[in-house]
Specification:
Blueprint (H helix, E strand, L loop, with lengths): L1 H12 L14 H4 L5 H27 L3 H13 L7 H13 L8 H13 L24 H11 L7 H18 L5 H12 L7 H13 L6 H35 L9 H11 L6 H23 L3 H13 L10 H23 L7 H15 L1 H6 L6 H8 L5 H11 L6 H7 L4 H22 L8 H9 L3 H25 L4 H17 L13 H9 L10
Length: 552
């Protein structure tokens, strides 16, 4: 009866709402199991043996004088997704590479890979290492496609003012595009295409692992132990992710049974996949579950405030959230009352769970939920007044906060417990340079791909419209200008990443948020148009890469 009443009430509050497609997955993960219990036990036992074999391979490489072997081994472990097992060994190996006084090699490929790996791990390496490779026109390039891709990837680990890296990217982008038009082998052509679309540092790690397992398997130089470990590890984590989705699906079905959500996107699986991109390692299982629930609320808030609320209902709901008291629900329409109470109860349960884990940051979770509601509410006035900010900067002062990038990053920090000091959480919520950069990647990337669709309904103005107004340009020209801002933001992200004012374990999570945003909004709004993610999610959760009934 309450649900029927809610439908009637919500229809009176809508502002020409958007119509969203239903969930692609429904209850699928209530029953799906990629393997049975005995198969999982067998795989874990086999993986443990493989881990020790690969560890010995790393130690042997570290003891050798073969720089290429060291670099390519680290690169392989990272791309294939098993490096998290060997953090200490990899750190020690790269420290020795960094301390090597000759600074690398006269080989462009080796120099590029060394530069990439060391910078990625926070080492200060000057871009001047590429000066000796300039030709008579001042360009750095290669006729070898693999060397060129590695150079191009390395140059994207740039900071502001590194002109030689800027020039490498500009010149070699056209070179790689030229190679795409030649008769490259199909697999190599795919690698070039991906490099141009998403340089290696910006790729979502677990997606790259799944892709690279297939690539590595075809290499004649592959290490069979590394390949088998990667396949086993992928399947073991896949089973864990599916267990998490079962728990989340049970929670979500209960939440839906208590609340009218017909105005909102049903994207639980896609949100778990998103959070997996931020924290994929097995020991972050609770973090993924917690963050998925909280980001579900952010999505609900987005759909409510964006185009499904009146100014009055928006204000009432925001005031209730700020009060954080069930009695505040009495002032709300029926459909908002049920949402409010369920958000309150779930969030309070998360806070209790974190306190039981002796997490010192537990109370900050409430602040993240409250701030998210406030940030979305701030945009309602723009929507109702059809206000177009005069400049992109004016727009970002409000809209960066509703990208929820800061909230995702901060929740990741909170979930790590003792790894995160109080000052790191307080730093993150002030939108420092790295968080602002991540938020710009998310905000502008989202606007570019969803601008036209969202204008069909009552909707807050996007950065695309503001850019068109500020510069008097077309949609296409505005998008080009906004993409330049995204590139500059990646430099901001990497500058603060290199500064290491906070532990790399935290800074890496911020970068991971940017990577997931870049992926989600690469070609379209893949979160909203969730059919675009079906194949990717199938490869991540459904299709196995290792047959547990046989060996490689």
């Amino acid at each position: 009866m309450a649900i029927t009443c809610s439908v009637a009430l919500v229809s009176q509050s809508q502002h020409r709402p958007q119509s969203f497609t239903p969930s692609v997955w429904g209850d699928y993960f209530l029953d799906h199991r990629p393997c049975n219990t005995s198969q999982l036990v067998t795989m874990k036992e086999r993986a443990h043996a493989m881990e020790e074999d690969v560890r010995q391979t790393i130690l042997d490489a570290a003891a050798s004088y073969d720089l290429i072997q060291k670099l390519e081994l680290v690169d392989t472990l990272q791309r294939i997704g098993v490096d998290y097992h060997y953090q200490e060994e990899v750190h020690e190996l790269l420290r020795h590479v960094y301390d090597d006084s000759d600074g690398g090699s006269d080989d462009l490929y080796v120099t590029s890979l060394r530069f990439y790996l060391l910078r990625k791990h926070g080492y200060t390496v000057s871009s001047d290492v590429f000066l000796k490779f300039r030709d008579e026109k001042g360009n750095v390039s290669s006729d070898d496609v693999n060397s060129l891709m590695t150079l191009y990837d390395a140059a994207h680990l740039r900071t502001h003012g590194e002109q030689i890296l800027d020039n490498i990217i500009t010149f070699n982008k056209s070179r790689l595009q030229y190679f795409m038009e030649t008769n490259l082998e199909p697999d190599l052509a795919d690698e070039v295409r991906l490099t141009l679309e998403t340089p290696r540092f910006r790729r979502v790690e677990r997606l790259e692992a799944r892709r690279y397992i297939s690539v590595y398997e075809k290499k004649e130089t592959r290490d069979k132990n590394i390949l088998e470990l990667a396949k086993l590890d992928y399947n073991i984590l896949q089973a864990l992710y599916c267990d998490e989705l079962k728990e989340l699906t049970i929670w979500w079905k209960d939440f839906q049974s208590r609340t009218y959500l017909g105005f909102a996107r049903d994207r639980l699986v896609e949100l778990h996949f998103w959070m997996l991109g931020v924290l994929y390692e097995p020991y972050y299982s609770y973090s993924r579950i917690m963050m998925t629930k909280l980001i579900v609320f952010a999505s609900l808030f987005d759909d409510f405030y964006d185009s499904n609320s009146t100014a009055e209902d928006s204000s009432k709901f925001t005031r209730a959230i700020e009060r954080w008291d069930e009695q505040a629900a009495e002032q709300l329409p029926v459909y908002l009352k049920s949402i409010f109470i369920n958000v309150l109860n779930t969030t309070n349960k998360i806070v209790e769970d974190l306190k039981l884990q002796e997490n010192k940051h537990a109370e900050m979770v409430k602040k993240m939920v409250i701030d998210t509601a406030r940030f979305y509410h701030d945009e309602v006035k723009w929507r109702d007044e059809h206000y177009v900010p005069a400049t992109i900067e004016e727009h970002l002062q409000i809209s960066l906060r509703s990208s929820v990038c800061m909230q995702i990053t901060t929740m990741a920090f909170i979930s790590l417990g003792d790894v995160t000091r109080r000052e790191a959480v307080e730093w993150a919520i002030t939108f420092p340079k790295i968080i602002r950069g991540v938020s710009i990647v998310g905000r502008i990337g989202n606007d570019i791909v969803s601008h036209e669709r969202e204008q069909v309904s009552e909707h807050a103005v996007s950065t695309v419209q503001t850019c068109m107004k500020q510069y008097g340009v077309t949609v296409e020209q505005a998008n080009d200008k906004l993409r330049v801002i995204i590139e500059e933001s990646w430099m901001d992200i990497f500058e603060e990443y290199l500064d290491q004012k906070h532990p790399m374990a935290l800074l890496e999570k911020a970068v991971n948020v940017a990577r997931t945003m870049d992926f989600m909004y690469k070609r379209e709004d893949a979160y909203t148009m969730s059919h675009c993610l079906k194949d990717v999610i199938t490869s991540m959760y459904v299709n196995s890469v290792y047959d547990p009934s046989s060996s490689i």
